[in-house]
C-alpha cells in the first residue's frame, strides 16, 4: 500500500520524505498541492536528487525533472545553485535581441559572457508578464541540466545586474551563429557542422527533450569552430502537451522550419512524440546552411502555410551550391509527411558521421568522398579569426530608391532573412500617373531638419537628453538646423524597435523609433530593423497626405538608428477597441472613409501598403486617422497567401480594409479564435471570408460594403477610389465626431 500524500500544510524536509512522495501514483499533483512556503526547499531537494542520480536510473531522473518543471512553471522558483553574482555588463546598449529579450555582452571574472535579459517592462498586462517570466524560468531550469559539447553551456541566472529583470548567462560566442559565420568563411566544413548539430540534437532527444526551434540563428559556433545548439525558450519534454499558439492565434516558433504536423496540431490536438518535429527542422537547417537562405525564402509566411499543408511542398533542391546526393536524400527523408517515417536523430547522426568518416579516410566505396569533395576540410578552417578579430562594422549609407519605367506593375521579389519576411511595409510600385504632373508637397517645419540629428547614449528610457544635428550626416539636408529634444515615455516595442515620445523645446511632440545599428554580421535582428527603418524613411519622406503618417527624418549615429515620425496622441484604433470595445457605425464609417482616402493616395503614388490593420491605423483626438504599419496573416488576402513568385496588386489592400472594418464593427480581429494555419486553409481551400461574430448585426449597406471589399476574386474587388464612393461611407447630414467611448 502506497503512503498517503502530505497535506497542503505539511512540508517535505529531507530526501526520504521526497522519495515517498515520488513513489505516489500522482507525485506532480501532490507536490503542486504543497504550501508555497515549502516549495523552495522541495525545489532544492529535487535539484540535489537529480544531480546525484546516475544515468543508469534514467526513469527516476526524468521523474525528478518532471516534478521540478511543474513546480518552476507554477511558482517561478529556481534552485539557488544556479544563481550567479559579480556579473558585469559591458556597454550602454544591447548587442542583439528578439521576442521578449535583449542580448548584452558582459563578463564573469575574466570570462566574456552573454546576458539574455528578459523584457518584462514593456508588457503592461500582469498576466502576460507572469507568463513571460515563467517561460524564462522554465528555460533556465531545462538548460542548466544540459551538458554536451554541442549544446551551448549554461552558466546560471542573475537578478541583480538589471533591476527587476532576469537574465540567463552563457559563454560569449565570438563567432556568432552558423549562418553569419558561413557568410564570412564560406569554405567552412559544412558536413562537419551537420554532424555536430545532429549530435547535439541526438543528445537532447536521448533526454526526452524536444528543442522546438532548430534553425541557423539558434546554432552558435564556439572558439573551436564547433556548432552548439542554443535558445531553449521553446524546448520541452517530448511527451508533454504544449500550447503552440499565442494568445493572438499566431503559431509559436519559426514558421519556415516548422513541420506540417505542428500546423495541424492546432486542429487535431498534439501528437504523442514531438521529436520528429526537430528532425524536420534539422533538414530545413541543412538546406539553410547549404544555400545561405531560409526554407521557402521566396514565399510570404501566409503562402508558406498553404504550400506546406495543402500542396505538401518542400524546398527545391539547390543547384548552384554544394548539395551531394546522399545528403539531399537524407534531407528528403527527414521531410517525410508522416512524422513516423522520418529517421530518428541517432540514425541521422550515425549516417552523417559515416559520410564524414568516408571522406576523411578517402574511401570512395560508398561514394562518400565524392559527395563531399567540395567541402573544405576541418583543418583548413582552424586558423580562421573569430568574429572579434574581423572588422564587420557596417558602413552607413543612405538607401536610394528610384522609380523607373522598368518597375514591374506587380511584386515579384521579396527579401527573407533568418526566417522572417522582410518586405517593405510600404512597397514601391509603378507610378499610376506621370510624375511630371505631380505637385511638390509643401515643406513642413520639422521635415528633414531632424535627418541629421545626433542621439547621445541614453541609459534610462525616461531620462531627458539633448539632441543636436550633424550637418555632414548622410541623411542631413541643406537647410538642417539644431533642435533640442527630450526623450520621454516608451509607448511601444516591436520588431522595428522601441518607440518613445520626444518633445522639442517649443512643445511639439514626435514619435521616435530607436533601433540598434548592427555592429557585427551576426546581429540579424538589428540588421533587419535598421534596414526596415531606412526603407520606411525613404518611402514616407516624400509622401504628404492628411491620412498617411508623416516622417520627419532619420538619424543614424551608431550604435543607434532613430526614425522620427508624427505622433498621434489618440493611439491606434486597435488600442481604442481594446479599451472601449467595438466602434459605433458612424465612427466606423468616418474612419473607413479616411483610410480609403489614404489608400487611394498611396496607390496613386505607386505604393502598396500590405499591412493594413487596426493596430496600424493611428488617430488624434479630433478623429483624424493616419496609416502606418506591417503585415500579418489574419488580414492577408487569398492571392497574397497563395503567391509564390507571382504578382499581386493594390486589391490586397482593399481586402485588408474590409478586415479593418470588421475589426471596428466587431471589436475583435478577423478570424477570431482561429490560428494562422486555419485561416490560410479557409482562405485558399474553402474560399471563406472572415466570418461575422454572432453578436454583430450589420445594416444592409454595411453588409454590401464588406462583401465588396472581401470578394475572393481580386479582380472583382473595388479600387480605393471606388470604395470612397460607396453609399455606406456617407455620414448623416450634420454629423460630427464626438470621440470614442
TrEMBL record:
GO terms for biological process: MAPK cascade. Residues 89-352, 485-729 form the Protein kinase domain. Keywords: ATP-binding, Kinase, Nucleotide-binding, Transferase. Residues 434-458 are annotated as: Disordered. Pfam families: PK_Tyr_Ser-Thr, Pkinase. SMART domains: S_TKc. GO terms for molecular function: ATP binding; protein kinase activity. The keyword Flavoprotein does not apply. PROSITE patterns: PROTEIN_KINASE_DOM, PROTEIN_KINASE_ST. This is Protein kinase domain-containing protein. It comes from Moniliophthora roreri (strain MCA 2997) (Cocoa frosty pod rot fungus).
Amino acid at each position: 500500500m502506497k503512503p498517503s500524500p502530505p497535506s497542503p500544510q505539511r512540508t517535505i524536509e529531507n530526501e526520504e520524505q521526497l522519495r515517498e512522495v515520488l513513489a505516489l501514483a500522482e507525485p506532480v499533483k501532490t507536490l503542486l498541492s504543497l504550501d508555497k512556503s515549502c516549495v523552495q526547499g522541495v525545489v532544492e531537494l529535487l535539484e540535489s536528487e537529480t544531480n546525484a542520480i546516475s544515468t543508469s536510473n534514467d526513469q527516476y531522473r526524468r521523474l525528478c525533472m518532471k516534478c521540478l518543471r511543474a513546480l518552476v512553471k507554477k511558482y517561478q522558483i529556481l534552485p539557488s545553485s544556479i544563481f550567479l553574482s559579480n556579473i558585469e555588463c559591458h556597454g550602454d546598449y544591447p548587442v542583439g535581441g528578439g521576442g521578449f529579450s535583449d542580448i548584452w555582452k558582459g563578463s564573469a571574472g575574466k570570462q566574456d559572457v552573454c546576458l539574455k535579459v528578459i523584457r518584462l517592462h514593456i508588457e503592461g498586462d500582469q498576466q502576460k508578464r507572469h507568463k513571460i517570466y515563467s517561460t524564462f524560468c522554465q528555460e533556465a531550469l531545462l538548460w542548466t541540466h544540459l551538458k554536451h559539447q554541442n549544446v551551448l553551456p549554461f552558466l546560471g541566472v542573475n537578478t541583480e545586474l538589471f533591476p527587476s529583470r532576469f537574465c540567463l548567462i552563457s559563454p560569449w560566442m565570438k563567432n556568432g551563429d552558423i549562418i553569419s559565420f558561413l557568410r564570412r568563411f564560406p569554405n567552412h566544413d559544412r558536413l562537419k557542422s551537420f554532424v555536430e548539430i545532429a549530435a547535439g540534437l541526438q543528445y537532447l532527444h536521448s533526454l526526452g527533450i524536444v528543442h522546438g526551434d532548430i534553425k541557423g540563428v539558434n546554432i552558435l559556433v564556439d572558439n573551436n569552430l564547433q556548432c552548439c545548439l542554443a535558445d531553449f525558450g521553446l524546448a520541452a519534454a517530448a511527451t508533454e502537451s504544449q500550447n503552440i499558439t499565442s494568445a493572438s492565434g499566431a503559431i509559436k516558433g519559426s514558421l519556415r522550419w516548422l513541420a506540417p504536423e505542428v500546423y495541424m496540431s492546432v486542429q487535431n490536438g498534439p501528437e504523442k512524440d514531438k521529436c520528429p518535429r526537430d528532425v524536420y527542422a534539422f533538414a530545413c537547417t541543412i538546406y539553410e546552411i547549404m544555400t545561405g537562405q531560409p526554407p521557402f525564402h521566396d514565399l510570404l509566411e501566409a503562402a508558406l502555410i498553404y504550400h506546406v499543408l495543402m500542396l505538401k511542398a518542400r524546398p527545391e533542391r539547390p543547384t548552384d551550391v554544394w548539395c551531394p546526393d546522399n545528403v539531399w536524400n537524407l534531407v528528403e527523408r527527414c521531410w517525410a509527411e508522416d512524422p513516423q517515417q522520418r529517421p530518428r536523430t541517432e540514425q541521422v547522426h550515425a549516417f552523417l558521421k559515416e559520410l564524414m568518416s568516408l571522406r576523411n579516410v578517402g574511401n570512395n566505396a560508398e561514394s562518400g568522398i565524392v559527395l563531399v569533395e567540395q567541402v573544405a576540410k576541418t583543418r583548413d578552417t582552424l586558423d580562421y579569426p573569430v568574429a572579434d578579430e574581423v572588422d564587420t562594422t557596417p558602413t552607413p549609407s543612405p538607401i536610394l530608391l528610384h522609380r523607373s519605367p522598368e518597375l514591374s506593375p506587380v511584386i515579384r521579389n521579396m527579401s527573407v532573412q533568418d526566417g522572417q519576411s522582410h518586405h517593405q511595409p510600404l512597397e514601391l510600385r509603378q507610378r499610376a500617373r506621370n510624375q511630371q504632373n505631380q505637385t511638390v508637397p509643401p515643406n513642413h517645419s520639422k521635415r528633414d531638419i531632424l535627418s541629421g540629428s545626433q542621439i547621445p547614449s541614453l541609459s534610462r528610457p525616461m531620462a531627458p537628453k539633448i539632441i543636436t544635428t550633424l550637418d555632414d550626416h548622410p541623411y542631413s539636408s541643406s537647410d538642417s538646423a539644431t533642435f533640442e529634444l527630450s526623450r520621454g515615455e516608451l509607448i511601444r516595442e516591436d520588431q522595428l524597435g522601441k518607440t518613445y515620445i520626444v518633445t522639442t523645446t517649443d512643445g511639439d511632440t514626435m514619435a521616435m523609433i530607436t533601433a540598434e545599428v548592427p555592429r557585427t554580421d551576426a546581429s540579424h535582428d538589428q540588421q533587419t530593423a535598421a534596414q526596415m527603418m531606412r526603407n520606411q524613411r525613404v518611402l514616407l519622406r516624400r509622401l504628404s497626405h492628411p491620412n498617411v503618417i508623416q516622417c520627419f527624418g532619420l538619424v543614424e549615429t551608431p550604435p543607434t538608428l532613430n526614425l522620427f515620425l508624427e505622433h498621434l496622441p489618440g493611439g491606434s484604433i486597435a488600442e481604442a477597441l481594446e479599451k472601449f470595445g467595438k466602434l459605433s457605425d458612424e465612427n466606423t464609417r468616418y474612419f473607413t472613409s479616411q483610410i480609403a482616402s489614404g489608400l487611394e493616395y498611396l496607390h496613386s503614388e505607386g505604393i502598396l501598403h500590405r499591412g493594413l490593420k487596426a493596430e496600424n491605423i493611428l488617430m488624434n483626438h479630433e478623429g483624424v486617422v493616419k496609416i502606418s504599419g506591417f503585415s500579418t496573416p489574419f488580414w492577408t488576402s487569398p492571392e497574397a497567401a497563395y503567391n509564390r513568385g507571382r504578382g499581386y496588386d493594390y486589391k490586397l489592400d482593399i481586402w485588408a480594409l474590409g478586415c479593418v472594418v470588421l475589426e471596428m464593427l466587431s471589436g475583435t480581429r478577423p478570424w477570431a479564435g482561429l490560428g494562422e494555419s486555419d485561416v490560410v486553409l479557409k482562405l485558399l481551400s474553402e474560399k471563406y471570408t472572415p466570418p461575422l461574430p454572432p453578436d454583430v448585426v450589420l445594416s444592409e449597406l454595411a453588409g454590401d460594403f464588406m462583401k465588396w471589399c472581401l470578394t475572393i476574386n481580386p479582380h472583382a474587388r473595388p479600387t480605393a477610389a471606388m470604395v470612397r464612393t460607396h453609399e455606406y461611407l456617407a455620414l448623416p447630414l450634420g454629423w460630427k465626431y464626438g470621440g470614442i467611448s
